[in-house]
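Methods — Computational structure assignment.
A single polypeptide chain was analysed. Its primary sequence is given first, followed by the predicted tertiary structure written as structure tokens.
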Amino acid sequence: MRGLFSHSDLQVIKFSNDSEAWWYVYDPQTGEQFYAATEEELRRWIKTRHLRKLIY
């Protein structure tokens, strides 16, 4: 049986404490890692990564 996510899917983890939240993203296809201080920053990185894949 195959899991819900493949090994090529982005892995996103949200960390938070009482006053802050931040995100860690890992792309197993490229080995890229990214830390985002805001959800908007996270979305921009994912969008840029997606557009880059369309170009190449």
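Note: The radius of gyration is 13 Å.
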